[in-house]
Amino acid sequence: MVSNASRPPVIGVTTYLENSAFGIWETEAVVLHRAYVESVRAVGGNAVLLPPLGDWRADTVGWLDGLILSGGADIDPARYGQTPHPTTGTPQPARDEAEFALVTAAVELELPFLAVCRGMQILNVARGGTLHQHTPEQVGNTDHQPEVARFGKTDVTIRPGTALAGILGGSVVAQCHHHQSLDRIGDGLEVVATAPDGTIEAVELAGHPFALGVQSHPEQNADDTRLFAALVAAAIQRRGDR
């Protein structure tokens, strides 16, 4: 029998619900970029996919050691009191509901979590913040989302003395693909990194053992797994403290 201390930490990863084609089938499916799973595996964790359907709350996710809120579609603007911008995507109520529940549970349980791109936006809105629905209107360029299905590169400056700086140092070149970004910051969140055009690139939740949101896509750089390693280390630490 594998002891609790020696087993790999279980990291839940949120997923998409999309029309997909695989094998002989074309159907609605729960899917996720393989890069997330590989990133967790590379640093000693076991990734478990969490579908955007189910009962996700503190009482039902206590078996997780950590959580990743993955990237994806735009959040329904009604969640933060706005009407849709012409460029905002069609709402996905099931995924929104599931991920708001998951991030609320993670905060309540002090479950270590990494919120990626849309995930950081979910975290911000869940804490009462708002979004810029079309970032190019704010910064005057499309560097953050250069074209369909291609990642851009962003120079990210990290605030000294933050948890993120302890992981990545003072700066990093990040891969990104987003047309929305954080506007008003949610309760308890601290901005810890920005792009040269002022776009908020990372936030941390004060008082939480490990709650980090990044606007970029660290899973797309297999040569730099430091954020995932930090998440897994925090998950192992939490398990040891219980």
Name a few traits of the molecule:
single chain; alpha/beta; Rossmann fold; two-stranded antiparallel ribbon; globular
Kindly state the percentage of residues in helix.
25-40%
Beta-strand content: 25-35%
Poorly predicted parts: none
Give the C-alpha Rg.
17 Å
CATH fourth-tier homologous superfamily: Class I glutamine amidotransferase (GATase) domain
Question: Largest sheet at a glance?
Answer: 9 strands, mixed
- Main structural class: alpha/beta
Shape: globular
How many helices? The count is 6
Oligomer: single chain
Domain tally: 1
Write up what this structure looks like.
The protein is α/β, with parallel strands linked by helices and 242 residues long. It has one domain: 3-Layer(aba) Sandwich (Rossmann fold), CATH 3.40.50.880. Helix content is 25%, strand content 27%. The chain has helices spanning 34-42, 93-109, 118-126, 136-139, 163-168, 226-241, and strands at 10-14, 16-22, 25-31, 46-50, 66-69, 113-116, 131-132, 152-158, 171-176, 181-182, 189-194, 200-205, 211-214. The protein has a nine-stranded mixed beta sheet with strand order 4-1-5-6-13-12-11-8-9, with helices on both faces. The protein is globular and about 50 Å long. The two termini are 20 Å apart. 40% of the residues are buried.
Secondary-structure blueprint of this entry?
Elements: E1 10-14, E2 16-22, E3 25-31, H1 34-42, E4 46-50, E5 66-69, H2 93-109, E6 113-116, H3 118-126, E7 131-132, H4 136-139, E8 152-158, H5 163-168, E9 171-176, E10 181-182, E11 189-194, E12 200-205, E13 211-214, H6 226-241
Parallel strand pairs: 1-4, 1-5, 5-6, 6-13
Antiparallel strand pairs: 2-3, 7-10, 8-9, 8-11, 11-12, 12-13
